[in-house]
Amino acid sequence: MKLFDAVPNDLFSVLASPNRILYADALTVLYDAYRDTLKIPEEKLYSMLRSKLEHQLAEATFEGEDIDEDELRDISGRARFLIRKLCSKGWFEKERGDDFGEYIAVPGYSSRILELFQQITNEEPSRGYSYVFGTYSSLKVIYKVAVDEIGKRMLMTEVVAALIWDKNKFMICQRPANKARGMLWEFVGGKVEPKETKKQALIRECQEELAITISVGEVFMDVVHEYPDLTVHLTLFNAIIANGTPQKLEHNDIRWITVDEIPEYIFCPSDETILSKLSSAEMKK
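and the corresponding structure tokens:
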């Protein structure tokens, strides 16, 4: 097995971008947070990024990055973007805790690489052969951990979906019977095509599947889910219909439901975390 069969294909892409210094500093912050606890509350990582990288975040241009206008507007948005970017590249994963809070979990391959980065940047004098051998050994361990942990993992597919609201109801769509996960309910959306932004992809998908034009709002949440046939990174955006009436061009059915009606429908497994957030006490207020 080759290295990029074992670790996410774009894992190191952030370190080859124009903002590589900022991303490297963000990974250092991630390492500092990870040393304290195995699962990091997302808000803790967000606060650490804001406080430790305030100047770098203010100076960064993010030219060529898939950053939204709302994220680019201030330090808070830029810190949120760093979290979204590093998560999408595989440096960590998001999990829902029992308290419905978002937590950051660092995979084994990522923790080993972060540890190696710290060893390389340590200011203590190198120790000749022993230092070189130690680094080589660490790289071997990284590779082994990655192979053991995600050797069978397929390339991640970027997917977007729309949480379309009409007052206190939101739209769900039933997949056709002849497709994978047939007759299950989902949020309208689809794959992000090359050279598309996520918002552009979502607008296109809604036009193709429902014959409507939507106004895309902020990200509601994003999740990573592994199906038997693919692994998806799903980004769900809040949205409203700007023009048109929904039509069943590709779906078996379309419904508008309230949060309390969620248990009446069987959804795709990748939506379970999203539905938990929607059903939380905070969302019902």
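(Above: one complete record from the training split.) Strands lie at 39-41, 93-96, 102-105, 156-166, 169-174, 185-186, 189-191, 213-226, 231-243, 253-257.
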